[in-house]
Amino acid sequence: MNDARILLVDDEQSILELLQTVLRKEGYLHVDSVKTGEEAIEACKAKKYDVIVLDVMLPGRSGIDVFPFIRQTTDAPVLFLTARSSDFDKLTGFAIGGDDYITKPFNPLEVVARIRAQLRRYVGSTYGKLSEATSPRSTNVFDYGRFKLDELAGELLVEGQVVSCPALVFQLLLFLCKNPNRIYTKSELYEKVWGEEAFSDDNTVMVHIHRIRERIEADPSYPKFIVNVRGLGYKIVKDELQELSAP
């Protein structure tokens, strides 16, 4: 874990120095920092990073603007860092593919905790693929008719076609598939899948649920598989016709 490479992107030198200091105290020694979006793009072209902390309010091109260009060179999780705290801003960051959203002012230890949670999901794996060395079981395929989730292959198939699935989207869907017809609150899902306390922010789970629905539902506006039980939480619906197979 401590070999992970981290890129910090922020135009405030004090924030960069604070995060670098805390990360290094926590054992993360490979921490680079840049101050502009253009520098971030070039850094991602030059090196492979395991996680990126990207400020939204950058001089010139914003973090939102440069994010698609960063995604062209790396699949590393991106944590947006910004003074904007409205739900709209958070949802914008998640909607374009961000993995987490941290608002200023922040506790640097919270940033470290969120980075650590992302690294647990990404370092040593590729988008949800679990090596057979870490799991003695045969490949499990969760068959829901319209879609199938192949755990060890790390593949989501919808109507027979492989659909791209970012790691945390895959892991959240996998967790639900392993626990069908059971209701989980947003906080419970965050703690189970992300591996950290929810920090009183459940937008992350909500947006990732939306991403899953976009992939597996015929009409995401009227979901049949992942449903919201009002006032309680989410569950994935599995009936007696849907089998768990192990080829």
Automatic annotation (TrEMBL):
UniProt keywords, alphabetically: DNA-binding, Phosphoprotein, Transcription, Transcription regulation, Two-component regulatory system
Residue ranges annotated for the Response regulatory domain, each copy included: 5-119
DNA-binding region per Swiss-Prot/TrEMBL record: 139-238
GO molecular function, one term: transcription cis-regulatory region binding
Protein name as it appears in the record: DNA-binding response regulator
InterPro entries found in the cross-reference section: CheY-like_superfamily, OmpR/PhoB-type_DNA-bd, Sig_transdc_resp-reg_C-effctor, Sig_transdc_resp-reg_receiver, WalR-like, WH-like_DNA-bd_sf
Modified residues (4-aspartylphosphate): D55
